[in-house]
Specification:
It is a single chain. The chain has about 150 residues and is an alpha+beta fold. Helix content is about 35%, strand content about 40%. It has four helices and six strands; from the N terminus they run αααββαββββ. The longest helix is centred in the N-terminal third of the chain and has 16 residues. The radius of gyration is 19 Å and the shape is globular. It starts with a helix and ends with a strand.
């Protein structure tokens, strides 16, 4: 009995160290696929494709925006301006951490803006947090904040 109890406690601690109870990572791959789709759409400089990843009620603080975007039209306008002003800008995804929260998930991490110039690439380290919600069987961005690293 004591051996069984100790083994059970050890398995429970292993679950905590590994990131939580069994099944905690369920859906994590689906959440990360939205982030990967965001990076791919951004790198393609496709404003409509980027904006389509956001929920109609999403809020968005863009890296170079002084305005909190709260409608699909405002999100699209931000990315349309970005793609027009810097058509060769790309994002390199760095570390990211996912927290599954039932019907929601947060993804926080780093990406680097790479802006090709004649004199060489201009690199701008950035940080981000995405909040996604599971709606109609899929994951969609409901909040996104991006800012320069201090």
């Amino acid at each position: 009995m004591r051996r069984t109890l100790l083994m059970g406690m050890g398995a429970g601690l292993l679950g905590i160290v590994a990131g939580g109870p069994a099944g905690a990572a369920d859906g994590e791959g689906d959440v990360l696929s939205v982030i990967d789709a965001w990076i791919a759409a951004f790198d393609a400089r496709d404003a409509a494709r980027i904006a389509a990843l956001y929920a109609p009620d999403a809020v968005f603080w863009g890296t170079v925006s002084t305005t909190l975007r709260t409608s699909p039209e405002e999100v699209l306008a931000y990315f349309t301006e970005s793609t027009t002003k810097r058509p060769r800008l790309r994002m390199q995804l760095g570390e990211r951490h996912v927290r599954m929260l039932g019907g929601a998930a947060s993804v926080s991490g780093r990406y680097t803006a790479v802006d090709p110039q004649e004199s060489g690439d201009v690199l701008t380290p950035l940080r981000f947090t995405f909040l996604l919600a599971k709606r109609d069987g899929g994951w969609i961005i409901v909040s996104h904040h991006s800012s320069r690293m201090p």
